[in-house]
Every structure is written in C-alpha cells, then in structure tokens.
Amino acid sequence: TEAKYYGENSLGDPKLGVIENNLLCMTCHKTNQNCPGHCGLINFPIKFLNPTCAKEGIYVAQCVCNSCGKLILDKETIKSHDIDSLRDIAKLKKLAELSEKNRCTNISDDGYKCDMNPTYYPSKIKGELKILCEYPSHGKEKSIKFVQPIEQLSMIYESISPEDLKTLGFENGSHPRNFIMSGMLVIPPQARPPDV
Questions:
Q1: What is the DSSP code string of 51-79?
Q2: Which residues pair with 176 in a beta bridge?
Q3: What number of other Cβ atoms are within 10 A of residue 164's Cβ?
Q4: 43-91 pLDDT per residue, tens
Q5: Residues with Cβ < 8 Å from 124, sequence gap 6 or more?
Q6: Which residues pair with 134 in a beta bridge?
Q7: Residue 63 and residue 159: Cα distance in Å, rounded?
Q8: 69, 177 Cβ separation under 8 angstroms
Q9: Backbone phi and psi for residue 160, each to the nearest 5 degrees, phi listed first
Q10: Is 54 in contact with 83 (CB distance < 8 Å)?
Q11: 96 secondary structure, DSSP code
Q12: Which DSSP category does 3 fall into?
C-alpha cells in the first residue's frame, strides 16, 4: 500500500534518493536531477541458504569433509573421472556424487579421523529454508535425521582451502559463503522500473 512504500525504513525511504521534483535526498542533499541514488539493505532476522543456489550449496557441503573442510576425493580420483572438463553445477554435482559414499582420509595431529559426512537431501529444500540431513544407521543404531544449522554450513564453507575452492570451480573472488543470505540489497528509486 501507499503508506508502506513511503517514509523512513521503507522502500521509498528518502535516504535512498528522490525522484520527485523540489525534494532533496536525505543522504547527499541533492535534487532528483543530481542525486545518483543510494543503495539500502534489508537485514533478515535469520540467515538462510539462497533458494536460487541451494542445490549448489548442498553439493559443496557433500564434496568437502564437514569436519576439516578438505576435499573428500583425492586429485587422482578427480583426474580419473575427468571432472576438470566439467563446469559450474555439473562439476559440483559430479564431485558430490563421487564423494557421497567416501570418507575423508585426513588424520589430525592428535591421531583422530574425521567423522563421516551426513547424507544431504538437496531435493527436499524446495520452499523450505532448512537443510535436511541424515547420518545412516550402523549396526543396531538407527539413522539420525536432522536439520543442518546454517551456522554449521557457514563454518564448513569457511574451512575450505583456496586450492580446494579452485578445484570446486570457485575463482576470481567467488566463494560458497556467498550462498548464505543475511540480507537483501534495495536498489534506489532512480534505478527501478517506473510504476505501471
């Protein structure tokens, strides 16, 4: 409605710039003729995996050890499956498929092996902001289904080395941490299409 569009902390906040004549921008104090407009930010109350790239985010979590952040597959396995010839989501998907039943071979300085990754369900995140996972059953133990906290996913992404990021296809400053949304950019009124 009209009241929600105009005023402070709205999409029509005068700090974003003005498009009406005879008004001054509250940020740069210029008229609509001279003010370029200023971006705003809507902060979300929770962080979540961006729905437009959620599958890619899950594939990354499947490709790396969720304990230490190293790639689960070694360089020889990646080379033998010609994964470097693939690009973008096809590469991530293939790496995730091959990584799914494998375990990280890294052993810590204390002599501990990394835990097995859970099984992620990328197809079950449609319309939900939850990342569903499951640890498979072992012997008499039942499988454990749970929701992976976004903070845990963020820690997994941050623990990936630059070399492994490059193998996954993240270059030129791109990083899987960018799949996690904590806010949304608000473009200035000058850059928006006119109302119809």
A1: GGGHHHHHHHHHHB-TTT--BSS-HHHHH
A2: none
A3: 16
A4: 999 898 888 888 899 999 999 999 999 999 999 999 999 998 988 899 9
A5: 132
A6: 119, 145
A7: 13
A8: no
A9: -80, 130
A10: no
A11: H
A12: H
Q: What pLDDT band is residue 126 in, cutting at 50, 70 and 90?
A: low
Find out whether 99 and 116 touch, Cβ atoms under 8 Å: no
C-alpha span between 108 and 111 (Å, rounded): 5
**pLDDT for position 5:** 66
| Short-list 65, 160, 71, 59, CA closest to 115 | 65
Coil, helix or strand for 9?
Answer: coil
Query: DSSP string spanning 150-185?
Result: HHHHHHHHHTS-HHHHHHHT--TT--GGGGEEEEEE
- Helical residues (DSSP H) of 68-149, grouped into ranges: 75-80, 88-99
DSSP state of 107: B
- CA dihedral over 54, 58, 64, 65, signed as positive or negative: positive
Amino acid at 135: Y
Strands 180-186, 144-148: pairing is: unpaired
pLDDT at residue number 18: 86
Token representation of residue 47: 């962080």
